[in-house]
Recover the amino acids of this structure.
């Protein structure tokens, strides 16, 4: 009898925890309200908090990987970014292969296109600045070129 009760208690606990998790994950409510507070504290919109500040103001539609675009992006990366970034190791700036684990595509584009304002206003960049102690500078990259570099990041992300 005691054993039965224990089993029931265990099952109940598991069920309760599962449903609890679900609630926590689904409740955009709690999650969003803390994000909203953070955005408000830094004077940003929720979109800017997740996707950065700059010319990219809407979610991008990426489509399937475009190899030609990625290869142009690789050349640009080697020319304009590799002095500070490596793919797999920390250098002057953070490693880039795993950047999608931390950032949205739009955030990455805005960081490339508008680093000064990102550094001045975005809490995530401020955290990075405290770690890397160097400010990323604008590398004269057009929006189209930034999109090509993004495509290169998508390609190397798949090669992990
Ligand atoms: C002068 C060195 C320097 C150059 C050149 C540079 N970066 Fe950066 N980058 C940094 C540093 C340092 C950071 C971390 C934020 C900060 O401290 O400004 C960073 C951050 C980033 C981030 C955000 C990463 C994250 O996890 O949040 C991306 C994306 C990025 N750089 C891409 C690029 C690309 C693409 C280029 C070339 C067009 C480039 N960077 C050129 C130094 C540089």
């Amino acid at each position: 009898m005691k054993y039965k009760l224990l089993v029931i208690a265990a099952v109940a606990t598991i069920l309760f925890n599962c449903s609890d998790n679900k609630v926590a994950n689904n409740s955009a409510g709690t999650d969003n309200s803390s994000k909203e507070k953070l955005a408000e504290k830094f004077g940003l919109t929720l979109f800017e908090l997740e996707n950065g500040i700059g010319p990219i103001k809407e979610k991008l539609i990426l489509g399937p990987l475009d190899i030609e675009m990625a290869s142009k992006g690789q050349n640009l990366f080697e020319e304009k970014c590799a002095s500070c970034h490596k793919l797999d190791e920390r250098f002057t700036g953070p490693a880039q292969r795993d950047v999608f684990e931390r950032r949205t595509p739009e955030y990455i584009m805005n960081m490339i296109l508008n680093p000064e304002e990102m550094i001045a206003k975005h809490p995530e960049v401020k955290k990075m600045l405290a770690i890397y102690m160097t400010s990323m500078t604008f590398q004269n990259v057009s929006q189209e070129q930034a999109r090509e570099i993004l495509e290169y990041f998508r390609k190397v992300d798949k090669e992990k």
Residues 80-81, 83-85, 92-94, 99, 102-103, 108, 111-112, 119, 125, 128-129, 132, 134-137, 139, 141, 149 surround heme C (CB under 6 Å). The radius of gyration is 21 Å.
